[in-house]
Amino acid sequence: MQPKRATTAVVATQLWRWFSDAKRFEEATRDASDAQRKKLLSIVSRNRDTVYGREHGFGSIQSVADYQRNVPINSYESLGPYVDRMADGEPGILTAEAPMMFAMTSGTTGKAKMLPVTPASLAEYNHAVQTHTWRALEDHPEAGAGQFLVTTSKDEEGRTPAGIPFGAMSGYVVKRQPALIRSRFTLPYEVGLITNVELKYYMTLRVALTSHVTAFSSLNPTTILLLCQKLQEHSEKLIRDVRDGTATGLGPLPDWLEKAVKPRLTPNPRRADELASLLRNSGELRPTEIWPDLAILLCWKGGTMPLYFRQLQRWFPGIPIRDRGYMAS
Q1: Taking a C-beta distance cutoff of 8 angstroms, is the pair 250, 199 a contact?
Q2: Per-residue pLDDT of the chain (329 residues; tens, 9 = 90+)
């Protein structure tokens, strides 16, 4: 166990990092055009000696206009051959930095795409997450009193011919968080590795039912709605598992998963009685009754997402919904 002083220092450092990221972002918005120009030229400069950089004269680019003249509008199809070479382990193709992993898109517009994640791009991703987290906690400080129920996916679905992992960015980011920060997440990293969708929702709920959840965070609001539906569908099994300190409502767990969640599964008859009483009185398990300190929902609000808000309000009346923002791979 970390000494209290060391733990406090880690928390203070993390909060300062989030605050600094939020301030840096806010300052950049005061002159967005200049911030974007500097960012573009920084990326071009770092990658001037890559194969793509040499082919498109990155060394001579000094302005946005230069970039527009030298670099064509690209699609994934035009960049795909370069990505394939990176996946094969060739250095210096699209980025000077070697990829740490490849993030897989969901394939919404067709075939899933592999996107190289470098130390620099991961830092940018974390900057956006930390800025968002700071602002959310600043506006809703009560959300910081408990744990965030954050849904993630498997970060290693396989490896490229060069042995570079590919999978979901969400799981990769969670895995790299310091242990103290991960302790503020309701779910252990291993739950994101579950590929059986039904079991994944069940285990998410099983762990969350005995946790002090103060925020739900999922990119897609449909994930939150499915959790609510599965909560009703499996209510009796979940309550029984809470009472017994088990998680076998859908059958025995794989050994690796049982080992990961076992420390969180202790018999809790008192909590089971509370849940059973809520189910008996309301005829359903309502999230705002199960987690009375729930302070905020974090999910996408753009595009077609508002179609789901009426259903969210049915399960989370009065709970503010905050946009996760536009973070495109």
Answers
A1: yes
A2: 455 555 556 666 767 777 888 888 899 999 999 999 999 999 999 999 999 999 999 999 999 999 999 999 999 999 999 999 999 999 999 999 999 999 988 665 667 899 999 999 999 888 888 888 888 989 999 999 999 999 999 999 999 999 999 999 888 888 888 777 788 899 999 999 999 999 999 999 999 999 999 999 998 999 999 999 999 999 999 999 999 999 999 999 999 999 999 999 999 999 999 999 999 999 999 999 999 999 999 998 888 888 899 899 999 999 999 998 766 65
Report the candidate in 230, 122, 143 with the shortest Cα–Cα distance to residue 185.
143
| φ, ψ (nearest 5 deg) of residue 268 | -140, 75
Other residues' Cβ atoms within 10 Å of the Cβ of residue 122: 18
Residues 36/27/137/12 CA torsion (nearest 10 deg):
110
Give CA–CA dist 172/185, Å, rounded: 14
Q: Would you list the domain boundaries of the chain?
A: 121-151+187-323
